[in-house]
Specification:
Elements: H1 2-22, E1 32-37, H2 45-58, E2 63-67, E3 78-80, H3 89-92, H4 94-102, E4 107-110, H5 114-120, H6 122-125, E5 129-133, E6 145-151, E7 179-183, H7 190-204, E8 210-220, H8 230-234, E9 238-242, H9 247-256, E10 261-266, H10 275-281, E11 287-291, H11 292-298, H12 304-308, E12 310-321, H13 323-333
Parallel strand pairs: 1-5, 1-6, 2-4, 2-5, 6-7, 7-8, 9-10, 9-11, 11-12
Antiparallel strand pairs: 3-4, 8-12
Helix pairs in contact: 4-11
Length: 337
C-alpha cells in the first residue's frame, strides 16, 4: 500500500512547496508563537498550547489563540472568550472549545483565514501575544517563535509524507523550530528516548529537545471543573471512550492514574458522536473515562444517567528536562527577559 501511495506523497510535497512559495507572510500587531508538529495529529499539541497559554497569563500577558476549528459545522469566524460560555463544540470545533474552557483568560479566534480574523477581532481581544495553533506549516503569518511537538511513541512514522506516511514535512524541517517538545516520553524506554533526542539534534542543527510526559492526573465531571469521585472508578474496571489522534497515549495515562481498564472504544480523531450510538455503548452500569477533548462534545449529548457515570481525565505536560529552556525562550522571544 505504501508503494501505491508514494506517487501521491510526491504530489503532496510539490503542492506543499508551491503553497509555501506562493504565500507572502504578513506581520500581526503583536508577537506570534506557533505550536505545531511534523506529523498528522496525535502529538499532544493541544495540552502544550494550554500549558503555553497558562504560562503567558501567569506572566501578565493577554493571549489570543488563532485556530482553524477543524470539523465544525460553520465556516464563519467565531470569537470565544470567558471560557466559551454558551458556545457548542459543533459551532467552534472541539479543540478550540477545550482551549477556551481550560484557559478562560485567553481569547480563541476560530476560522480558516487566521491573519484577517486576528485583525477583525483586534479591538475585542487587545491581544498582547498571538498563539498560532497548528501553525508550523501555516505560511501566511510571520511568527516570532516556532514550537514543534514530537510524539516519542511514533515520532516520524515510516519516514514518508502523507498519504504514504504520517509526515507533513521531512524531519529536517525542525531547523525552523526554536523549541522542540518531545511528548509521551514515558511510553518508551531510556535507550529509545536517547536515540530520538540524538536524531532531533541532528535534524534541527543542534537544538536540544525538551522532554515531557503526562501527569498531574485529575478526574472531573463533563464540565471539566467539578471533581469526580475517583473512589468509584478505583472500585471497578472502567471503560475508555475516546476520539483523539493518539489513543495509546490516553490509555497509558488512564493506567498510570491507577485505574483498571475493562474495554476500549476508539473512534476517529474529532469524532462527531451520535446520541443513539452512545446509548448503546452506555447500556449497563460501567463507569466511563473520556478525554477532555471528547468531554466538550459529550456534555450536550449525554443524559443525566450518562453524566453520572462519566469521568474526564485531565492531564498536564510535565517537564522531564528543559523547563528552564522552555520558560527562558518564551520570555526572551517576548522581550520579557
Amino acid at each position: 500500500m505504501t508503494k501505491l501511495l508514494y506517487p501521491l506523497s510526491v504530489i503532496y510535497k510539490l503542492l506543499s512547496e508551491a503553497d509555501k512559495c506562493l504565500k507572502s507572510p504578513k506581520t500581526l500587531p503583536a508577537p506570534v508563537i506557533s505550536v505545531g508538529n511534523l506529523t498528522w495529529g496525535g502529538t499532544g499539541k493541544t495540552p502544550v498550547v494550554i500549558e503555553l497559554l497558562r504560562f503567558l497569563v501567569k506572566n501578565n500577558l493577554k493571549p489570543a489563540v488563532l485556530t482553524r476549528g477543524y470539523n465544525r459545522r460553520s465556516k464563519a469566524p467565531v470569537l470565544l472568550n470567558n471560557g466559551g460560555v454558551n458556545v457548542s463544540a459543533a459551532e467552534s470545533g472541539d479543540e478550540p472549545l477545550l482551549i477556551s474552557k481550560s484557559v478562560p483568560e485567553a481569547d480563541v479566534i476560530i476560522g480558516a483565514d487566521r491573519y484577517n480574523n486576528a485583525l477583525r477581532f483586534a479591538k475585542e481581544t487587545k491581544a498582547g501575544v498571538y498563539v498560532l495553533d497548528d501553525g508550523f506549516q501555516h505560511w501566511k503569518i510571520c511568527r516570532d517563535l516556532d514550537i514543534v511537538c514530537v510524539n516519542a511513541a511514533d515520532p516520524f512514522g515510516n519516514g514518508m509524507l502523507i498519504p504514504a506516511g504520517i509526515l507533513r514535512e521531512k524531519p529536517d524541517a525542525l531547523k525552523r523550530a526554536k523549541l522542540i517538545i518531545i511528548t509521551n516520553a514515558d511510553m518508551v524506554d531510556a535507550a529509545v528516548l536517547k536515540k530520538l533526542e540524538t536524531e532531533i539534534e541532528k535534524y534541527s542543527g543542534g537544538l536540544k529537545a525538551i522532554v515531557t510526559y503526562y501527569g498531574n492526573y485529575e478526574y472531573t465531571q463533563l464540565d471539566i471543573k467539578t471533581k469526580f469521585d475517583e473512589e468509584k472508578l478505583k472500585q471497578s474496571e472502567v471503560v475508555i471512550l475516546n476520539g483523539i489522534g493518539f489513543s495509546g497515549g490516553f490509555k497509558n495515562s488512564v493506567e498510570k492514574s491507577g485505574l483498571k481498564i475493562k474495554k476500549v472504544y476508539d473512534f476517529k480523531d474529532h469524532e462527531k458522536y451520535d446520541y443513539n450510538k452512545l446509548k448503546e455503548i452506555y447500556s449497563g452500569n460501567d463507569f466511563f473515562v473520556i478525554t477532555a477533548k471528547d468531554a466538550v462534545k459529550l456534555e450536550s449529548l449525554t443524559d443525566d444517567k450518562m453524566k453520572e457515570r462519566t469521568a474526564v481525565l485531565n492531564v498536564k505536560p510535565l517537564f522531564k528536562t528543559g523547563k528552564e529552556q522552555w520558560e527562558k525562550t518564551i520570555l526572551q522571544t517576548l522581550k520579557l527577559k
